[in-house]
Amino acid sequence: MKNIAVLTSGGDAPGMNAALRAIVLTCLQYKYTITGYYHGYNGLINGESKQIHVDDVNGIIGRGGTILKSARCPAMLSDNGIKQAVSTLMKDKIDALIVIGGDGSFAGLLEIAKYWQGQVIGIPGTIDNDVDQTDFTIGFSTAVNTAIEAIDKIRDTADAFERVFIVEVMGRHSGFITFNVGIASAAEQVLSFENFDCVNKETRLNELSNSIKNAQSNRHSSYLIVIAENLWPEGTTELAKNLTELTGIDCTPCILGYIQRGGSPVAKDRLLATKLGVASVQALAEGKTNLMMGEQNNTVVEVPLRQSINHQKGVSKSLIKAQTDILSVPKQSQI
Ligand SMILES: Nc1ncnc2c1ncn2[C@@H]1O[C@H](COP(=O)(O)OP(=O)(O)O)[C@@H](O)[C@H]1O
Ligand SMILES: O=P(O)(O)OC[C@H]1O[C@](O)(COP(=O)(O)O)[C@@H](O)[C@@H]1O
Q: Which residues form the Phosphofructokinase domain (predicted)?
């Protein structure tokens, strides 16, 4: 018998529920009990928990968000908070803790493992895809699809008005969403941390404004820039204002925001979440600990949890090069 605990932490991601469902069904197989802690690490610190049964996870595979709720929990950044979390795990006689979250959540789990003897497993769930040792994180594919769907609609109205739009997408400080969304929506420019620095803002503004003016003087079409959040120091709205002034052409900002975090997970995320959920309980049954379950080349992998938060994974260089050298230049045939 094992008493397995699970929580979801950090930004919610479509597919977290699917992972929880897979965990619960696999635990049923092993006759393990499941304790769900609510509101991320806050639930662990405050002892906010509930036994999770199969009935609780019926019909949740297609639901966005997380039925366990999620949160950021600043208390975990102090020794006191971590020790409180550990004391709840001991009081509740938990044998193993599965955390579904991003790199921050895994850093928290590693802290817990320093003071607690139980088994710990991380499942990568974040729309940002910024977790190492897994090709994709749960939620990334859905977020990309959601953003593309929104931008396709923006393109229609942009085409009709021959207008310039600057669309901001999420990703905190990594460009996985920006590049994938920008390329898949045929953006004229993709601006992200990996290909655009703002050290000399004047130069950057002039380059962008020249590019917009050239493109718009030669053709009657739309012009879309997909930009990463937190890239332009004064924000995307200010960038749009500056470019409008410089070009004399209306540049309209559009911040997609939280729409990218919600919604029903696409098949790819449901399947990834299910595979990783099943594998995590199987690993616990084999006595394993301190692991992240990930997927590489379509195969589930178990990697040391510590290796998942080294921030070594980057946007594919060939994708960045293709955008810079080929895709961002308006083609003669489009003019
Ligand atoms: N270095 C750390 N030590 C302990 N806990 C951490 C650490 N970094 C993050 N956490 C915990 O994990 C939570 C989620 O992390 P955050 O970075 O906000 O999201 P994500 O897990 O999606 O990357 C934080 O609110 C905090 O409770
Ligand atoms: O919900 P908040 O606290 O405003 O955070 C916004 C951030 O959360 C995300 O949506 C997801 O990030 P995490 O999964 O790392 O928490 C980022 O893309 C964004 O920068």
A: 3-284
